Amino acid sequence: MRPETIENYLKTIYNLSSNNTAVVSNQKIADKLSLNPATVTEGLRKLHGLKYVIYEKSYGSRLTTSGSKLALDIVRRHRIWETYLAKELGFGWDEVHAIAEELEHVNNAKLINKLASILGNPTYDPHGDPIPDAKGKIQKSNFIKLSETKVKGNYKVMGVTDHSPTFLKYLEKHQLIIGATINVKTIEDFDNSIVLVCQKKEVNISPKAAECIIVQSI
Amino acid sequence: MRPETIENYLKTIYNLSSNNTAVVSNQKIADKLSLNPATVTEGLRKLHGLKYVIYEKSYGSRLTTSGSKLALDIVRRHRIWETYLAKELGFGWDEVHAIAEELEHVNNAKLINKLASILGNPTYDPHGDPIPDAKGKIQKSNFIKLSETKVKGNYKVMGVTDHSPTFLKYLEKHQLIIGATINVKTIEDFDNSIVLVCQKKEVNISPKAAECIIVQSI
DNA sequence: ATTATCTTTTTGGTATGCCAAAAATAATAA
DNA sequence: TTATTATTTTTGGCATACCAAAAAGATAAT
Fold first, then answer.
1. A104/chain B closest Cα distance in angstroms
2. What is the pLDDT of residues B39-75, one digit of tens each?
3. In this structure, which of B160, B163, B164, B183 has its CB flanked by the most CB atoms within 10 Å?
């Protein structure tokens, strides 16, 4: 398998298995990578042969220790580049994902560590995702989704789980950027949409969007 | 054809045809890209179909206008990255080539232009090679090879045509870095090796090495 | 439990990029 | 000019990464 192919699979499995414990379905991988399910079946069998994943037929996949290690390395590269593009090169948080998607495949530890060092070895990227350190250690957090918050609670926006420019531009328009503090006003019984106050303005968030916003209770 | 494959061919043809006029042989392309000659024949036929090169069977190839344009863009990306790695990220001139070889395939004009702007839109890279501007315009120079110099002449080192770490480390050891001024003392009749003075030290340069050092008369 | 639906796998097939060895074609030397 | 050598092209083949459609297997719904 080509390194890039391996990397794309492992990164995707890592991202889909949240804390790396859950088993990931073929379909979700196919969706994320825009591949035919048949292709994913093939790919997983090969990755199993390479000992990067434990793939159980008709059940699902999870990363092995070595697969996890590689995945964390790719995630690190991706997030360091995103941070560098945003902080040092002046790109918007809605632009960095696409560029990092390509840069992440350049495998040079010295380069990534140099970028990290210039950035002061950050532990979070512009989307609020934790950046693994050079050894693959990742910070754990007790963040929750906006959709899991309680009425009248005060929260701080910590990250997003969707990196599409359209979503990020939408958030930016409502000042819902990382670090913003919000107050959950009501949760509509009708459609579960959330009304919150941010920067003194009232914003109505759809349940779908609330699933993609990560916050911390304050 | 995959973009990366196209880019590697075009860049190689560009580099081998000096001022982009000479016809390039299949073998030279095969050597540079470490490919089997049969593969190169195939590749050139495809590139001809894509209108990137004029490929005449059993004769050679040269770039079309659109091939030239693409080639110059890749050369720009490569050389901007080399310069950025050296000047902004602290890599040695013997390290930058290999990393830039990968980074050059990330095709994002905004990124390259941003890096160039941070560097002050440089016109030469750390090896003395000219960097095309965003429009593909490249600076012309009247530089000559060290092997073409005359005895007793004074010259300034302007670049190298070999980017291998071994060669560059060798040059560095003798202080033969970009900008160094040298005086050609003698050219040995026996083997055409060149004896020159650099930083008050006498250095003996083999004909092979002299072919790879670019200088300017001062 | 038995459809109906959704997911996964199998099967058969394509395009790309590569190579080794043989055949054809140039280029060079005798 | 003819023989020798070097280069290029052809031929036949291989591995990778894909896909569409059919078959098999799970899951859910009644």
1. 10
2. 999 999 999 999 999 999 889 999 999 999 999 999 9
3. B160
Structure tokens at B166: 């071994």
CB contact under 8 A, A115 and B90: no
Distance CA A173, CA A181 (A): 15
Spatial neighbors of A17 by CB under 8 A, at least 6 apart, are A23, A24, A62, A63
d(CA A94, CA A19): 25
B210: its two tokens: 């002299």
List B110's β-bridge partners, or say none. Answer: none
| Average pLDDT of the segment spanning B125-151 | 91
Cα–Cα distance measured from residue B63 to residue B21, given in angstroms and rounded to the nearest whole number: 9
The answer to whether B212 and B160 are in contact (CB under 8 A) is: yes
- Token digits for A189? 């019984």
User: If you search the block for the tokens 């349940």, which residue do you land on?
Assistant: A207
Q: Any atom of strand D under 7 A from CB of A39? A: yes
**What pLDDT score was predicted for residue A189?**
81
Structural contact between residues B17 and B23, judged by C-beta atoms closer than 8 angstroms: yes
Terminal Cα distance for chain B, rounded? 46
**Cross-strand partners of B215:** B144, B157
**Angstrom distance, B217 CA to C26 C1':** 40
**Domains of chain A, first to last:** 3-63 (1.10.10.10), 144-217 (2.30.30.90)
| pLDDT tens digits for range A93-150 | 899 999 999 999 999 999 999 999 999 999 999 998 999 999 999 998 888 888 889 8
Q: Are strands A154-160 and A144-145 parallel, antiparallel or unpaired?
A: unpaired
Q: Is the separation of the CB atoms in A93 and A36 below 8 Å?
A: no
For the four alpha carbons of A101, A95, A171 and A156, in that order, the dihedral sign comes to: positive
User: What pairing do the DSSP bridges indicate for beta strands A201-205 and B194-198?
Assistant: unpaired
- Rounded to the nearest 5°, which phi and psi values hold at A7? -60, -40
DSSP single-letter state for residue A146:
G
**Which chain B residue's Cα is nearest to A109?**
B99
Nearest C-alpha neighbor of B199 from the set B212, B183, B188? B183
